[in-house]
Design brief:
By secondary structure, the protein is of the alpha+beta class. It has helices at residues 5-32, 53-60, 65-72, 153-160, 201-205, and strands spanning 77-80, 94-100, 111-117, 130-136, 165-167, 170-175, 178-183, 188-193.
């Protein structure tokens, strides 16, 4: 269809405006997803800030072990877990035990540490073990509310609030001697139950292996 010069000029103007709009939206989304990384370092918790209900709910019961194992259909490697001195330990005899190498993830994905009562590993669906630690560098919907890597930085802030400490691209939340550690640039997180609470980033950083996906 023939168009006169005025129509062509108008069409080109609309096309240019549309491109600028798309670029603006994309840039705005990128900025939103760097919202936490753009904040300055903060090495000590502000005692006047409070944890959100969502954060408390997550850290009080991060994962239903039985339900998670049912979803994984017993397909994982497992063996003796790390026994770092900072980990929570119940006041009864037992040992740390880990689940890892879940199907579809290879050496990546969820890594779970539990504490088993007694001396025997027992069956896969043994129900006496308790949650100690979860770390992952991949999204996994089977983690439920602990599928942290499915959140944007904006969603992390909206759900878990601003009561965190930060150094570089690592942010750390804390509730009832349990930490949520998120590496924003390296895309991994860890939820870990500890023997004690911490006051600063430097204290946590001093604990060997605590700020890492692999212990």
């Amino acid at each position: 269809m023939w168009r006169n010069p005025a129509q062509i000029h108008l069409y080109k103007m609309k096309e240019q405006i549309f491109k600028i709009f798309i670029l603006f939206c994309f840039t705005n989304l990128q900025a939103q997803d760097k919202i936490l990384e753009s904040l300055p370092d903060n090495l000590k918790w502000n005692q006047t800030k409070a944890n959100t209900d969502q954060l408390k709910n997550l850290l009080e019961k991060p994962l239903d072990l039985q339900e998670f194992k049912k979803l994984k259909l017993q397909k994982s490697n497992s063996g003796g877990g790390n026994s770092n001195k900072y980990l929570f330990k119940p006041n009864y005899n037992g040992f740390y035990y880990s689940y890892f190498f879940f199907p579809g993830f290879g050496e990546h994905g969820p890594r779970i540490t539990t504490f088993k009562r007694g001396k025997e590993v027992g069956e896969y669906m043994e129900s006496s073990e308790i949650f100690i630690q979860l770390s992952s560098d991949s999204r996994d919907s089977d983690l439920g509310k602990a599928n942290i890597l499915s959140f944007t930085q904006k969603q992390i802030l909206e759900n878990f609030g601003n009561n965190f400490i930060k150094k570089g691209s690592v942010i750390i939340y804390q509730h009832n001697k349990t930490l949520l550690i998120i590496s924003l640039s390296n895309h991994w997180f860890k939820i870990v139950k500890l023997k004690r609470s911490y006051l600063s980033f430097n204290e946590i950083e001093a604990e060997k292996g605590l700020i890492s996906y692999f212990d």
